[in-house]
Structure formats: structure tokens, C-alpha cells
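Weekly puzzle thread! Below is a chain. First person to post its structure in C-alpha cell form gets bragging rights.
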Amino acid sequence: MKTIILGMAAFLLTLNIQAQNKNVKSEVKTTVTTVKDSEGEKKLVKTQEVKEVQNIELQNADSKELNKEMKQTPVQVTATTEVTANGVTRVLDVDRSAYYNLNGSKYKVAVDKSGYTMFTPTGKKSAILRRTSNNNYIYKNKNKTSFGYFDANGNLVLETYNDKTDKVTVTTYVIVK
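Winning reply:
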């Protein structure tokens, strides 16, 4: 009985010691940004993790050769971004923090605890962006509220309804690359 139990335990432990069948590469980049404005100094910590996983396959797996060539397989890349602002950590699909141009002025969009904040070229807070359930954004500043989204090029597009003219105006903030 004792031999059977020891044999089964040895068998189960050897299953765990199989050869690795994946190449895994992980890279973590942490950026700390300090923003000074009229409300004081705020610290934003952005952690980006890029993980690459590639399955290992052999070209001639059935051959009797000792050293076998590795076959090229596709690499699966996953990127996650965590942003900590004012003690609140959020996980982002795509980080849209960047500089955007509108009419020759350069605006900064930065992550805050519940969305994004837009700053004027002088560094003053000009608007907030809050994400909706369908991956769009509500843009709110002192004078207007607009519907916004990011296009395929990464530009911020705002659509504002004007009730006097009964028209929708489109404003595009072009991303600075």
C-alpha cells in the first residue's frame, strides 16, 4: 500500500516537471508624472505591462534528430495599463493621455481618477472627459457639454449640438506625434 501511494505521488510530481512549451517575455514600464496646478501638486503613476507569449513548435517533431529546429509561430501580445491618481488605481484598455492641437494651441489630456482632464497651453484645467458605457466620452467645460470619441488616428473628436441653429458642430483635436 505504501509503495502504491509513493509511486502515485512520484508520478504526479513528474507531470509538473514537463518541458516549457512557450516563450514568455514580459516588460513593465512605470512612468511617474507630477502635475502642478492651482489645486496643488498631483502625482500620477502609470504602469504599462506588455506580455509576449509565443508557442514553441518544432519543424520536424517526428524525426529522430537530437537537436531540432524551432518553427516560427505567431506571437500573442497583451498590453495592460494601470494608472494611479490620488490613490485610486484604474486599469485602462488604451491610454489616451497625450498632447492635442486645436487652432495652433497645444492642449494636454491627462488621466485623472475618473477619466481624463484637459489642460490649456498655460497649464490651467479647461475641461474633463468622462467615459460612457459605449466607449465614448462626455466632454464638459464651463460653457458647453459635448459628445466625444477618439478616431482611428487617435484624434479627439467632439460633437456639440447648437440648439439655436439646430446643427451639430464637429471639433477635432489632432494628436501630436
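Puzzle host: Confirmed. Bonus trivia for everyone else. The chain has a mean pLDDT of 82.
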